[in-house]
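Exam revision sheet. Question 4 asks you to relate a sequence to its structure. Input first:
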Amino acid sequence: MPHAKDHKARTRQRIVRNAQRLFTAHGFEATTIEQIMRASQLTRGGFYAHFRSKAQLYAEAIGHAASAELPPRAPAHAPTHWLDAVFEACALPAHARAAGHDAWQLLATDVASDNPAVRAGYGRMFRRLTHQLQRASGRTFGVDGDALATAALVIGTLAVASSIDDRWLRLRVIDACRERAQALLGTRTEAATHEFLWAVDVSHARAAVPPLH
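Answer key, structure tokens:
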């Protein structure tokens, strides 16, 4: 029975999605073509029908991760600012983070890569996310130093938070970075620190609930 006309395109998309997930979890160097194809329920030989190299796949996967837009600027009366949500995600296990935060996590995973293809893709995605961050803050002019610094804060927070086992210290680091980011973009809310930490606790508790089968 012949394949549907879009079979190859759907297969390619499946490979890209699985590659993005594995690159995010393990980084470019530690992720193998075999792992990606096994997760996609395909053989390694089928990889080269879609991609020339793992580096080409990474470039596509990193672009896919960056395609998710940040939420629009929240109104002043919103109980939780959109920037709070970005930092709340830093406290959650990787599997529990919303899809919109995949790009940030991927940048945190490959923050020190020496691979030229990874570094090129990294730079493109960093610029794109910084533009998104600035638009979401309500600023319409070109990317400025505050937006660049905030993007670096988000990525650094993810990288550091994922390396700290002491949960209270991790939450304090996240909250401190959140406050600095809001100050940089002029989006500081009236919510107190304990309210932010309470919101993180609620999100963490929900993420810990095992799925129903």
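Marking note for examiners. Confidence is low (pLDDT under 50) at residues 73-80, 209-213.
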